[in-house]
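The protein record passed on for reference:
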Amino acid sequence: MVEMILSATYHYQQPLLLDDLLGWHRALFPDGYSGPYRIQAGSIRDDSHGPMQVVSGGYGREQVHFVAPSAEKLPDELDKFLLWFNTSSNEQDDIDLVIKAGISHLWFVTLHPFDDGNGRLTRAITERMLAKSDNSAQRFYSMSAQILKQRNDYYRILERIQKGDKDITDWLVWFLQTLEQALIAAQETTDKIISKAGFWQTHRQHALNDRQVKMLNALLTDFYGKLTTKKWATITKCSIDTALRDINDLIQKGMMQKSEASGRSTSYELVLS
């Protein structure tokens, strides 16, 4: 999946070809199996086992969320999609490339041209158009990751639009809001990395033991709850006394301090400049 996304975005300036899609599909299913099921890896579906449907629920309680276009229509429909995808905007058809990424996503996932892996290929196509919009192969945010975080909302809006009256406005609004969340998440991650690097640069002269390095890195990343001596001892597998010595040493070095909102038990926090 990662290799496919990198390939999709690195070559964003090149036209997207059917051979690219078939190659990505083969890469996703190198042995020709999706779980226990044999699929046509690197080939457009032929509907030999019935129409392509998106179904949920157990046996006898199946719910059909979507029925894809018939296989016989796919060659023509894919040609239309790829021609549109690869055509640059002009004065008569001036469309922002971020909007085009949203339309591309909906269009391709609705065609559903493969036995399996359609969602993954759709996300690769989306990232390619976003790379084209950014005019950069370097990705500092991930629309794919954000969609996976919001997958339940994604499936709901997708089903509603695909069963609707062909008005895709609500889909584009959802797509743009999700893109905004992806950018915010990327900014927050970047801020954490910069803060962490700055912390270690500020205190580069201090000699620390392995337990202290481990806990400081944890606190600089995504530490859950308040840090107490008991929690320090549990995580680093040392005694309470050793944990307290480690913490007091960091307090003396100006790297940690007692939290003002400790409550009943004393807790500690980083000193961030």
